[in-house]
Amino acid sequence: MPTSVLFCCDYNAVRSPMAEGILKKLVGQRVYVQSAGVRHEQEIDGFSIAVCAEIGVTLSRHRSRSFEEMEEWGDEIDAYDLIVALSPASLRKAQEYTRYHALEVEYWPIFDPTGLGEDRDEKLAAYRQARDQILARVQERFVSRVAG
Q: Exposed site from 6, 69, 90, 105, fewest CB < 10 Å?
């Protein structure tokens, strides 16, 4: 069981904040959890906030950040026990760090719900699907190990 986990995706606006919030909710302070994006050009997505609120996960105070911003603010990427990449671009970025640091990287191919659906209900359904994929992976990877 890692003591620190960094989730990452493209913009740190949809999937990685959901994963960060879900893991924090399920394991509390037993694991240090953060998230980052390859780029920082967007703020937290409102649909992510909404679908996570449905399961008791609060994302409204999340501030999107990139890997570079984390390092500028003093957060050492190589200090994490595990980096979980949720998109192909973030997997490539995480693997760059393994060239110089002994890091464990996992890839969870969680689909990107942005741009899907014609109306609010369809959009929410797509975001719920991504949330539920993340929730299942977090439970499988972390919660069963904490309980066991």
A: 69
